[in-house]
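A reminder from the course coordinator: this example appears on the midterm review sheet, so study it carefully.

Given structure:
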């Protein structure tokens, strides 16, 4: 395996002015779902503006955002098993789901499609997840990240700062993926090889040469992961610091973010090959401890993202529920601005599930203004249309009712 170190994204010098260019919006112009959760078949034509989805509880708002999130690599915004996404209906069992979209981005229009079919009943093609880009089948879903950049916020992330570090890492890695489309594949490779090493360590007489080979792969992937995270976080932290104190809107508190990880700390100071060699030796030296613990004790899978509420100078985990939400929104907006600047003027797609919950009216309206200014196709959900009244004609509105969607 070759090690590719993510280079810091080169930003135009005037990023501080937040002029990301006029590339337009990375936007879905068409979206089609088949047998996905509560949708048997759905086809939507869309404008590049923000999309507001309203409907009663259980109408299918989050399901639609989840379907869009499947157009990126990974398991989507609920991290649900693929089999769970197949439409389940009494007396009727669907065996596959599909999501297809036309995305307007810097390289023009691209058709993205992903589908999953039950491997047990798929027959010839083996089933599982399939991905097509402009009609061409891809070897892995990782290829999608070269065509779409998407970030999401869901109600379950309200506990991101107080919950386990793994959730913050997942959030961080999703942000990093927008900077570096190969990041997801590296994280997957690292985790796969680490699981293999853990399994090997469980055996009484494990093969030393085999372990060394796995540790070499872990060192290469691990250092590349740390470098990509470190590059992305320093870009983001710099923008947050610059805009924070002189925030364009002042609707969201400024945030200090920093990485807390063994490798991430080293990659910014030492050459990658040195960090790689050090980590490889560390893994070799800790085989006995790792075998006793039943897991790998050192590596990028133990890193964390530290977030501090700038004006108050306190850790995000001490902040109120509404404050935590505002911090998260602030990070996602700053990230979208950095990506817009680095990505030819295209802000990422934003999936904001019930984002207005916990935000007071002025913050809510401030958020809408910032989304419109960003030019992002932000998908927002809510049970109550009146929450979105200040958006007026700056958005398109879809009313959902049990798997069907009407434009209003
Ligand atoms: N695999 C599936 N097959 C069929 N229906 C499903 C499947 N998974 C979930 N559902 C149904 O989809 C419905 C809509 O869920 P969704 O989470 O999208 O609702 P929502 O509009 O976001 O509601 P809320 O306002 O409560 O968040 C639920 O009634 C759920 O039972
Ligand atoms: Mg929902």
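Designed residues:
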């Amino acid at each position: 395996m070759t090690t590719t170190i993510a280079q810091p994204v080169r930003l135009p010098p005037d990023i501080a002015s937040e002029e990301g260019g006029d590339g337009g919006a990375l936007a879905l112009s068409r979206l089609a779902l088949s047998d996905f959760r509560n949708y048997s078949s759905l086809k939507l034509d869309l404008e590049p503006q923000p999309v507001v989805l309203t409907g009663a509880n259980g109408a299918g708002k989050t399901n639609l955002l989840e379907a869009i999130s499947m157009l990126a690599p990974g398991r989507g915004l609920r991290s649900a098993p693929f089999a769970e996404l197949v439409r389940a209906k009494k007396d009727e069992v669907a065996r596959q789901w599909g999501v297809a979209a036309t995305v307007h981005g810097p390289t023009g229009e691209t058709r993205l499609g992903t589908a999953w079919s039950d491997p047990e009943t798929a027959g010839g093609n083996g089933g599982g997840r399939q991905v097509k880009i402009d009609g061409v089948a891809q070897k892995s879903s990782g290829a999608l990240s070269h065509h779409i950049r998407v970030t999401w916020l869901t109600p379950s992330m309200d506990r991101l700062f107080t919950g386990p570090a793994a959730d913050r890492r997942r959030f961080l890695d999703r942000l990093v993926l927008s900077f570096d489309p190969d990041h997801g594949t590296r994280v997957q490779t690292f985790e796969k090889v680490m699981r293999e090493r853990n399994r090997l360590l469980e055996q009484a007489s494990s093969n030393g040469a085999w372990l060394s080979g796995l540790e070499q792969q872990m060192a290469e992937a691990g250092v590349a992961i740390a470098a990509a995270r470190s590059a992305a976080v320093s870009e983001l932290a710099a923008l947050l610091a610059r805009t924070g104190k002189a925030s364009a809107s002042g609707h969201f508190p400024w945030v200090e973010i920093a990485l807390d990880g063994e490798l991430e700390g080293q990659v910014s100071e030492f050459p990658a090959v040195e960090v790689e060699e050090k980590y490889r030796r560390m893994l070799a030296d800790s085989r006995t401890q790792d075998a006793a613990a039943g897991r790998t004790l050192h590596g990028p899978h133990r890193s964390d993202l530290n977030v501090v509420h700038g004006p108050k100078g306190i850790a995000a985990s001490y902040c109120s529920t509404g404050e935590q939400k505002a911090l998260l929104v602030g990070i996602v907006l700053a990230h979208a601005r950095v990506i817009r600047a680095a990505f030819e003027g295209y802000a990422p797609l934003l999936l904001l599930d019930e984002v207005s919950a916990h935000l007071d009216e002025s913050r809510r309206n401030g958020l809408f203004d910032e989304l419109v200014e960003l030019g992002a196709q932000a998908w927002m959900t809510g049970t109550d249309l009146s929450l979105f009244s200040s958006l007026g004609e700056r958005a398109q509105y879809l009313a959902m009712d049990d798997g069907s969607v009407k434009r209003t």
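The two ends are 52 Å apart (CA to CA). The mean pLDDT is 89.
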